[in-house]
Design brief:
Number of strands: 15
Radius of gyration: 20 Å
Helix content: 25-40%
Largest sheet: 10 strands, mixed
Structural class: alpha/beta
Strand content: 15-25%
Mean pLDDT: 95
């Protein structure tokens, strides 16, 4: 039995456009003391695992290899020619392992601080996984947040999963005190995950197995991938499994899924903010805001974004338009 950190690295981070692009996605941006979120993810788990496995698309795999070149651990790469959401990505990783191997599945683009608390949570999850539980990580919330899903729990028992709430519902969750933010991190034996996937989503299981069996050097065939239903691991397994457990975690966690999250992080790191809450990202050119508050200006060589902070989730609409017209800016 070995423990493997499976790093999911297929996303673009469209809510952080124009900083994040297909050619330089969010997880590879060196915004964090000269390091990327991808690097920080691998480094955070290096002392806890025996191996690192990256599941990503063909455009990003060279980035992954470059960022991991100095890490002294065995590394494997699975290349998705046609990404089909997290259920398929995790299934490929599980097929590549022995059934008793422990998978610690982490996104590549989350910011996590407080290594001691993180290590404790991972070690507890591994203990549960060794006993054939399917484990998710829930973050003890610090505020009513509408951008995250929630897990209702009683100690390590999951009572329900909840979709992203409105502000009033999020406030109710906080007041009840038994709700956690859904982190999108998981831990389980490879064989147990595949058994549960086969049980609850057999179409995903069988199509993923066929695609994996025909993979060459870790590269998944695009045609076979296209036959796999595009379903998240949450829907396919986590929200349906009778073996589910949650580890309530107190490490500092931020999925940096929007400019509002990035704003809060940068402000905490001392990035300049004026008296009305306005921030400029990407340029040192003198900038003045008149009659504006809570405005974020993002500058790159070829694009300019002006954003009212409370509309941060809508940046994805801009990206979707660029994608629709196949713009070079996407």
């Amino acid at each position: 039995m070995k423990t493997v950190n499976v790093i999911l690295s297929g996303g673009v981070g469209s809510r952080l456009w124009p900083l994040s692009r297909k050619s330089n996605p969010k997880q590879f941006l060196k915004l964090f003391s000269g390091k990327s979120l991808f690097q920080l993810t691998a480094e955070r788990n290096a002392s806890l695992v025996d191996e690192i496995m990256v599941v990503g698309n063909e455009e990003h795999i060279d980035w992954s290899k470059d960022f991991l070149k100095d890490l002294d651990l065995p590394k494997n790469y699975i290349i998705e020619s046609q990404p089909r959401n997290t259920a398929a990505a995790i299934a490929f990783a599980a097929f590549a392992m022995n059934p008793e191997d422990i998978m610690i599945v982490t996104p590549s683009d989350h910011l996590i601080e407080n290594q001691e608390e993180y290590d404790a949570a991972i070690k507890r999850a591994i203990d549960l996984a060794k006993n054939d539980f399917v484990v998710t990580f829930g973050i003890v919330p610090s505020k009513p947040e509408t951008g995250y899903g929630y897990i209702e729990h009683q100690r390590e028992n999951v009572l329900s999963f909840r979709e992203k709430p409105n502000l009033d519902t999020a406030q109710e969750f906080i007041e009840k005190g038994n709700f956690l933010w859904n982190s999108g991190m998981f831990c389980f034996k490879a064989g147990i995950l595949l058994e549960e996937l086969k049980n609850y989503q057999p179409d995903v299981y069988s199509a993923s197995k066929e695609a994996w069996n025909n993979a060459k050097d870790g590269v998944i065939d695009a045609g076979l991938s296209s036959r796999i239903p595009s379903i998240s691991i949450d829907y396919a397994v986590m929200e349906r499994s009778k073996k589910i457990k949650v580890v309530p975690a107190r490490f500092r966690w931020n999925d940096l899924g929007s400019y509002e999250s990035l704003y809060d992080y940068l402000k905490g790191e001392g990035h300049p903010v004026d008296n009305n809450g306005n921030m400029v990202i990407g340029t040192s050119i003198f900038s003045a805001f008149v009659g504006l508050s809570n405005t974020i200006v993002v500058v790159t060589d070829d694009a300019l974004l002006l954003l009212q902070k409370e509309y941060a989730q809508d940046v994805k609409k801009v990206y979707n338009q660029l994608e629709k017209y196949k713009s070079v800016l996407r």
